[in-house]
Amino acid sequence: MRYYQSEAVETKDIKEGKIPTEKFRPKAKFAWSAGIAISRFLEELKNGKIIATTCSKCGRIMVPPRIYCEKCFKPADGWKYVKDTGVINTFSVSFLAADASRLKEPIVVAIINLDGASEGMGIVHRIEEYGDWREVKIGMKVKAVWKPPEERTGAITDIAYFKPIRE
Amino acid sequence: MFGKKRVAIVGAGVTLFRRNLKETGKELSYEAAKTALEVAGLELRDIKSVVMGSAPDAFDGVHMKGEYLADGAGAYHKPYTRVFVGGGTGVFTPLAGWWHVASGQFDTCLVVCEEKMSSCYPHPQYAFTTIFDPILERPIGMNLIWIFALEMNRYMHKHNIKKEDIALVSVKNKRNALDNPIAQLAANITVEDVLNSEIMAWPVQRLDVSPTSDGAAAVVLASEDVAKEVTDNPVWIDGVGWCIDSTHWTDRDLYYPDYVECAAKMAYKMAGIKNPPKEIDLAEPYDPFDYKELHHMEGLLLCKKGEAPKLTREGVTQRDGDLPTCPSGGLLGCGNPIAAAGLMKVCEIFWQLRGEAGKRQIPGDPRTGVAQAWGDLMQYGSVIVLRR
Amino acid sequence: MTEVAIVGVGCVGFRQITPELSYKELMYEAAVKAYEDAGGINPRKDVDVFVTCAEDYLEGFSIFDEFVPDQLGAALRHLFTVSGDGMLGLATAYMLIKTGQFDTVVVEAHSKASDILTYMDIVAFGLDPIFNRPLGGHPYYVAGMEMNRYMHDTCTTMEQCASVVVKNKKNAILNPYAAYGAGVTIDQVLCSETCFYPLKKLEISNPADGCVVMVLASENVAEKLTDKPVWVKGVGWCTETPSLETMDWTKAVYTRLAAEMAYKTAKISNPLKEIDFAEIHDLFAYKELQHMEALKLCDYGEAGKLTEQGLTALDGEFPVNPSGGLLGMGYGLEASGMQKLLEVVLQLRGEAGKRQIQDAEVGLAHTWRGIPTTTGVVAVLSNKK
Q: Does the first or last residue of chain A, that is N or C, have fewer Cβ atoms within 10 Å of its Cβ?
């Protein structure tokens, strides 16, 4: 094999300014149009409801909603509310923040397959009120905890989090 | 036979992989490209086209970084394209090089992959916060480790796999890397070390993960005529495959990578491979996390679903096993300069098939190897089949 | 070796803003139109490869590739991203089909410029981070420098540059896909604000939203899908240099080299005679003139004069930018090459409405990746095989 003996440097030397660097913070700001499907979805969240679209060809109830069925490649046919309860498909317990620093309290994040949507379809959201994180299990039933109506803005965070339903 | 012309790799070169390299992205591209050209015995003037592979612009901190890297990659005054499929880019880029030559448009193509992750402050992980849907996912605070953890947990749950078995991959790859001079994180570690390392996002722990890195890699592709002129040891690209799954990753069962299977089937069909475990002598599946190697072995149809941990436990994937896997040390051992890491895997197969892998050389005169990379939102598979 | 044809096109836009649609919905609409135009193909089974052309910072994502497949019908199929102009996607599709491995390839490019709140900051983010970016300022000063040197070297006049704007905005009035059609005079152009001396405000294309999807096919498949295939006779592309300190400031060398490659494949020796019309990248008015020369459609330094004399008008001997160009249609970012291709296809099919050029048989499409790049693509297309 042939390789080039590149020059490795230490992070500490960069931080101390021993290695010349040019610093720049990009100014990149966006305002994404939510579009037809997600606009309605966000409006419904404000009302405390979760809405899906449906495909008459494959019969799927699709959440998050979209105006087309990606499997059949045809327009979605209609709207349908799904429940704000569901099952944990998989989860993670995060001990690190986005900058890789250590969190005081871990964050539990999960994919939740929503009741009323087609099998296996769901959204990603946070889980709270779980007690000990070791108690969180795949297959656990959860329910949305909504922000009070006056605090909702038409955002995914109008659902504050999901919490386990203890039976 | 497929394609208008058969395409060979005739040269390969890599830089060191390190947390910080002093070189700029352009300089790294140059170092890898120059090394590959020297191995091929070709000059830049012999190169008719150039393809660049590099992951998000946010790492290097330059919009349209393909354009910015062009001169370092040897593209001055040449037909030049950058392709980009997230983490799958490193193995995808030589596929793009393949069609430049297989189409009959060019006799030669220089394929360069570069990653300068250390430019991104305060941590390269920040660049990954913008890979998520801005309306549905970013407000929740999604980050990259989370989605891996979600996938790993689902994989473990579905097949009832223990963390101990997954940790064996990290142990193997970091040890393999001890024999690789470019490696960033070569080490002799134990399963206990992995299980006792810091929990990042359960079930992912510190030693389950590859690091962020700077580095570059390059290969020189040539048509059959040119290849036979310049070398006695061409390595042929006999199969190419790629596939992307739906954007809606929360609607898919993450336990199995259908997209890798789809890409592998495309490549195997071209290469005429009917029984992958028997016909493939070594593999470099993408291993940014230890469970990913297992996940990808299954997607590459090298074993049955859920069976990869068993093969690993039995030593089948060791360098002296029946199916050596990541003999290079992989991303876990060598480091993960994303696109460069993927192309490094292709380089490793090239060296192994030519018998030039030095201390890492696997026994038994290997003839067929497969490299694979993965990318996007647990969504992309790119696969290349190489033969001597 | 198989020939390659464009067998279907679909376009949404181009408009100043599209707040009602997400980028996904914009793409879906264009894709549906293209598949219908290509004989009603089903992308879930009839398309071998999908190519999308996009840059992360124009989308606001780190890996935009993730968000592409569903709306094109490409979920769990063979799709990838070219980080470049849509015409690099055309070049890629052309090569894929020429390998003999793939029969049908879809190419997509779009602009959702109205979603970007800080577009010029992002353009500036493309400048060399160490040599150029720290100097600050609006990045289009690069265009001002180039225009100045080009006019100096070729004796092209301000009026000649302005005549490009007058022509293109006038053509755009006839184009339903154009966002910025207008009747303006040379005086109005020259009296508009000087933005980057000598570049005037009306000589700069404004961004627009839109999406173009095209279906390409091998010879056998093309003839089954459509009775109006548009054949790709040759395509060439080139990057000159990313360094402002090294680039040629008058001759658009990237375009000359790309054109030489395309002409060689298409067996064109006298482009002005053998080609009937051209769609040329005109992000800035002077660029149309500079590119005409680099494309060898006229001698170096002659383009301004010929434009003033009406050679490139819609009813001239060699119409340039019958679509209205980017000055008239709006600048579709990475879709700008697709805007060019779209017009060439419509003209060669005889579907260009009031803009139709009579008996057009061979057309040229050209694109450039804008400031601060020196990357260009040229394609020669024909309705005769």
A: C
